[in-house]
Amino acid sequence: MNKLLGLSRKLGPGFLFAGAAIGVSHLVQSTRAGADFGLGLLWALLLINFIKYPFFEYGPRYASATGESLLEGYRKLGKPVLVAYFIISIATMFTIQTAVTIVTAGIASSLFGLDLALSSWSVIVTLICFVLLLVGKYKMLDGLMKIIIVCLTISTLLAVGMAFGNNDSVTFKQLLPNDAVGIAFLIAFMGWMPAPLDISIWHSMWTLEKKKLSEDLSPKQSRFDFNVGYFTTTFLAICFVFLGAMVMFGSGESFSSNGGTFANQLIKMYTDNLGENTRIIIGIAALTTMFSTTLTTLDASPRVMARSTELLTKKSFPNGYLIWLLVLVVGTGGIIFFLISEMGLLIKIATILSFLTAPFYAIMNFKLVTSSHMPAEAKPGLFMRILSVLGIVILVGFGIWYLVSL
Description:
single chain; Amino acid/polyamine transporter I
């Protein structure tokens, strides 16, 4: 038991990665992949998780080896690299935060049944996350996310167990979409699966925060922590595809792009097919999935934007995190109250940007960990280098394929 507790204390950033990744890509995109294509897109899920693996792993690898985040590394590669990251983040952070908040609010509304507008639920969710981060800071986030991910895993496995064998028409035949709608979905699916590549930067900063709490966090332990989070993320993505396929494939149900409506449809279809007594399990799985993402993204975006601002201006801002946290909260609220009708378009833009900018993060991360800025003993081995080059080629190829398919 003491060894287990000791291991638990050393784990942390990997769970935060899982919490950030297991959100829209899982509950929305993976479920829809199963609902629309059965198990036909499992190849895409496994492929994108495999080729993105090294670029996510380079975040904690660089941080644990150098004591710096990827942001400092980007600055060493040249100021334009950091400026490009800053611009991309500004273009996507508000939309992503709004998207995950609205879906979380929709699930909470459906689960608790209180007669409140979706915007009111969104405000409640945002304020809860804001207070948790303001009061508990990283230490609270580290401990809370371990509990959330364990609850999420258990509830999801229970849901899969109940759904298994519910749909006899589902096969393992793999499919490649060949129409505009199918290709657009595939790009969005792979763009946010398991998460946008910029989360590698978040992970590097969480690793540094963890090292403040656990000074003996070695590069080897950091990689183990990452692997636990990454493979948990991949496994649960497969689970959500199975859930969508077993419960929804061939149902003829058309899913709404509205976050609140989608949440209600999702829970209703599960309970209609698996029984009303499964509502609480499905609800917990869905709510923990999205709340973990809402909480971690609300922490990470202000954290990286504050540090980026300091590196670009060469000035220290002691309250930079709080300022950016308030900016993100206000910006998210503005979209929820004034641009909610355009939410579908905004999410589409954000997911496409995540996919098309993936080669940028992949190339920069690979270039950084193989450069003179990385200690020789911590540089990736031959297999990781080959996988990285292959991954960059595939990411660029998919990007070109999407652009010529428009």
